[in-house]
Amino acid sequence: MISTIDIVITIAYVLFIVTIGLWSGRRKKEKTESSSNDYFLAGKTLKWPMIGLALFATNISCLHLVSLAQSGFDSGLLNGNFEWMAAFTLILLALFFIPFYIRSGVTTLPDFLERRYNKACRDWLAFVSIISAIIIHIAFSFLAGGIVLETLFGINMYTSIVIIAALTGLYTIIGGLRAVVVTESIQSVVLIAGALIITYFAWNKVGSWDHLTTVLQNNQATDKLSMIRPVGDKSGLSWVAVFLGYPILGIWYWCADQTIVQRALGAKDENHAKAGALFCGFIKILPVFIFVLPGLFAYVLYKTNAIDLSSLQQAGANGTTLNTKGIYTLMITQLLPKGLVGILVAALLSGLMSQIAGALNSIATLSSFDLYKRYRPDTSDVKLVTVGRLSAAIALMVSLALLPLLNQYTSLFEGINDVIAHIAPPITCVFLLGVFWKKASAKSAQYTLWLGSLLGVAVFAINKLNSETLIGQIPFMMMAFYLFCACMLMQIGFSYLYPVQHTAESNKLYWKSFWEPLQVKGWSGIGNYKTLSALLLGIMALLYWTFR
User: Fold this and answer.
1) Model confidence, pTM
2) Where are the transmembrane segments (predicted)?
């Protein structure tokens, strides 16, 4: 069990974050209460370091620490593709999407869709974005956090989740985006520090890289060190599935999801927004080494009897198996000395609270600007903030109600990506064609969002009701690609059936050529967005070559 000093450290950290969040959100009380722009977009004052750290913190939650370690134990570095491939989509965000978002002055991404297409597209994306934020960003994070806290403290999972929900909701609902971003920046540092600590102790226990590779060879598991798997790999994540399927998930998640992009929308200017996105791309290199690799270290320690996983054993139809969801928790308790355990728990709570805070602020923004104000355009800023706070509170309660259903997934990380694979394709399609194709019409986007989402839900339902069907045999990454192809055909076909009729505004919201966005000068020196993009691309190519 966790020691008293570790409990004290954990409680002190939670109180510290709540205090900082409340202080950050209320220090400009008069402006915050009267300005919805300040509440939802931090007054558009955010600079690149804070944007990059906030993007990372919103993306990485307790779910990632727990489930990426689990995936490292089960399949090695493979799921690290979800982290490294993000660098490529963050480059797309910086180069091609941020310029339109910043220049058009939008508050939300549904607002952008209305300017590029029509109001129906805005309504649909707002609805889907709120639902996805509740399920993907909040409920799954709660689930991972509840499992960890129950294992460490012996507290009932739902009790611990309700407490964390109340504390996170308190400063997020009161403070707005400024409170979220300030606390996320702190939490990013704590989370990375905690991950480095567990990585160091696990590595120290393994001893050397030669010992690790020897153990893997003895257990016919050398493929655990490979990020690129052959076609037909039993994991369903062959190199083809990753390079075709991930961009569909990644472009939606990093370029078209309000919860993530809202940090860039609060930027001081376009250069800060671009640099912040690319800074996050560099940070995304770390998770493979500090989140996934420790799980692989745990596998090696388990095979050499250097760590006791007997508490994870469970009886099943095929004999005794390991419930590897608790790998990260056992690593913390068995590898770390007293005091450091509390810091690691603080890191886990950092990931949990930052993801939930970001999602709640996104939901508040969408509910106020894209739903409530649409039908009551004369609503005051004070009323909009009130509506946003109420929406965030309701979202918290809905996410708590979904926990028993989502807990049925064996792997939480696969569960969250399985859901995304069926949500993302129509949204990714509509944004890509909208930004890069002049002829993408409003009606085509509207029908693609409707029919594409319906198709995704139908495929998901068929898969869950009967996984033995042909559809059920398709890996979720390839399914995302197939659904995307179907949506592309829909929108292209509908665009010719219902030709585009550009407004003065929509005629400015697509690139005339692929090279047009690269003609913007940007900052001079190494901070230039083109220089940073090229450097990031080079590093990623080298990493993939090393771990091919």
Assistant:
1) 0.86
2) 6-25, 46-69, 84-103, 124-149, 155-174, 186-203, 236-255, 276-302, 340-366, 387-407, 419-437, 444-462, 474-498, 529-547
